[in-house]
Amino acid sequence: MLFDTHVHLNADQFQDDLEVVIDRAKAAGVQNMVVVGFDELTIKRAIELVETYEWMYAAVGWHPVDAIDMTDEHLQWLEHLASHPKVVALGEMGLDYHWDKSPKEVQKEVFRKQIALAKKVELPIIIHNREADQDIVDILREENASEVGGIMHCFGGSIEIAQQCIDMNFYISLGGPVTFKNAKRPKQVAKAISLDRLLIETDCPYLAPHPNRGKRNEPAYVRLVAEQIAELKEVDLEEIMKATTANAKKIFNI
């Protein structure tokens, strides 16, 4: 009944025990997941994984931190991959103002190019946003991203920003931080946002939920995210699982 909408099982951290991690995910009730590729190597690994496991899907895109490395050939490659039967979204894409590898203007240009591609191939987009709330919202609006909609991945913004994104046909995806004791905003968003616009994710191997914070994250832990949201919303876990899975299948057209 669980759908983890954002995993990086294509990361080096899972090379030694991938099968064990997958077994634990299944035991925890994870029925589907989207493996996200964000550069040349991780995209290739994502495609390999989803061609091996029937119940996995892929998203392909170019990460803003590495925007400076993206070429026109990479963009053409993404367009080619968009027709793959297991590719259900483009991303992760967006803006990351925490790291300074790629200048902001380069990030914005690459972000806009990927939104344009998503509209061309008619796939939803997965947004990476770090310390760039207003610029993200402005670009989504200017580029008419509402035509394809998508997911605000591992959302950490305010209720107001969340609502602006929802108004543009986006879902709000919450991960491990919603379980952190000091994470006020994700908890506020979890309470405030309508269940028909919520998704859950792990972003594994990063951002493991409490009580595993600081350790390697894995898809099985998405259940902890669902449990926390159920507690915050004061509803049964079953209701959260059912709604977030239905939402994921809707946005990914599965």
Give the strand order of the largest sheet, numbering strands 1, 2, ... along the chain.
1-2-3-4-5-6-7-8
What CATH first level would be assigned? Alpha Beta
Number of domains: 1
Helix content: 40-55%
Strand runs, count: 8
Instruction: Choose one word for the global shape.
Output: globular
Class per helix and strand makeup: alpha/beta
Q: Which value, in Å, is the CA radius of gyration?
A: 17 Å
**CATH evolutionary superfamily:** Metal-dependent hydrolases
Proportion of beta-strand residues: 15-25%
CATH fold assignment: TIM Barrel
Number of helices: 9
Rounded mean pLDDT is 97
Order of helices and strands: EHEHEHEHEHEHEHEHH
Distance between the termini: 14 Å
**CATH architectural group:** Alpha-Beta Barrel
Tag the structure with descriptive keywords.
TIM Barrel, alpha/beta, 254 residues
Description:
With 254 residues, the chain is of the alpha/beta class. It has a single domain, classed as Metal-dependent hydrolases (TIM Barrel), CATH 3.20.20. Helices cover 42% and strands 18% of the residues. It has an 8-stranded parallel sheet. The radius of gyration is 17 Å and the shape is globular.
Layout of SSEs?
Elements lengths: L1 E6 L10 H10 L2 E8 L2 H13 L3 E5 L11 H10 L5 E10 L7 H18 L3 E6 L2 H10 L7 E3 L6 H9 L2 E5 L9 H9 L5 E3 L21 H12 L3 H15 L3
Parallel strand pairs: 1-2, 2-3, 3-4, 4-5, 5-6, 6-7, 7-8
